[in-house]
Amino acid sequence: MPNLSALTAAMVQLNCGDTAHTYHFLQVYAFAKAIGEDEKLDARTQEILEVAALTHDIGIRPAMLRFGHQNGKLQEQVGPPVARSLLKGLGYDEALIDRVCWLIAHHHTFDPIGGIDHQILVEADFLVNLNGKSRQSVQNVRDTIFKTRLGLRMLDSLFCQPNPLEGIGQ
Questions:
Q1: Helix (H) or strand (E) holding 65
Q2: What CATH number has the domain bearing residue 44?
Q3: 19, 102, 123, 153: least CB-packed within 10 angstroms?
Q4: What is the pLDDT of residues 11-29, one digit of tens each?
């Protein structure tokens, strides 16, 4: 069975010199892993989720090279073939590769959400991508996208409004 260490190293190499995207996929992976564990996913679904979290943005560099720009839809379009080749080379089985490629092809598609692994991947990506967004944007995503207990807790903790009176007069 392939291990996530080899996949992580391969993804760092694919993003050679692009620390922002490397740190992004590592942060998404950490959030997805934690949420998946909290949701008590079965081992196979957890593995699929973690592989998808590491590879979800694999289409960014190919999109930039082919089109001179990248956006969510281009990532969804060009990412799966790159991921399929990488995962096959690392020894992952076809069923896992098929599901991971589906998740990559839908990680910017929120309606409908296609399974708990898709839900968690979308939430983990938002936990990272909402940094610097307006309070209203965060609230809108909270109201329309987030469903998992730990995802909601993390979102609320990351983007909470500090209480200006906290610690005064105590």
A1: helix 60-67
A2: 1.10.3210.10
A3: 19
A4: 999 998 889 999 999 999 9
Q: Given 3-state DSSP classes, what are the helix, strand and coil percentages for the chain, each rounded to the nearest 5? A: 70, 0, 30
Does 165 map to a domain?
no
d(C-alpha 45, C-alpha 162), whole Å: 36
Distances in Å between the Cα of 117 and the Cα atoms of 10, 169, 170 are 22, 46, 44
pLDDT class of 169 with cuts at 50, 70, 90: low
| Token pair for 45 | 């679904």
Q: Which pLDDT tens digit goes with each residue over 123-133?
A: 999 999 999 99
What Cα–Cα distance (Å) separates residue 128 from each residue in 89, 98, 134? Answer: 29, 25, 14
The per-residue pLDDT for range 80-117, each reduced to its tens digit, is 999 999 999 999 999 999 999 999 999 999 989 999 99
Q: Is 53 inside a domain boundary?
A: yes
Does residue 164 lie in a domain region?
A: no
C-alpha dihedral, 141 to 53 to 87 to 81, nearest 10°: 20
**pTM of the entire predicted model:** 0.91
Count: domains in the chain: 1
Say if 45 falls within a structural domain.
Answer: yes
Distance CA 97, CA 67 (A): 25
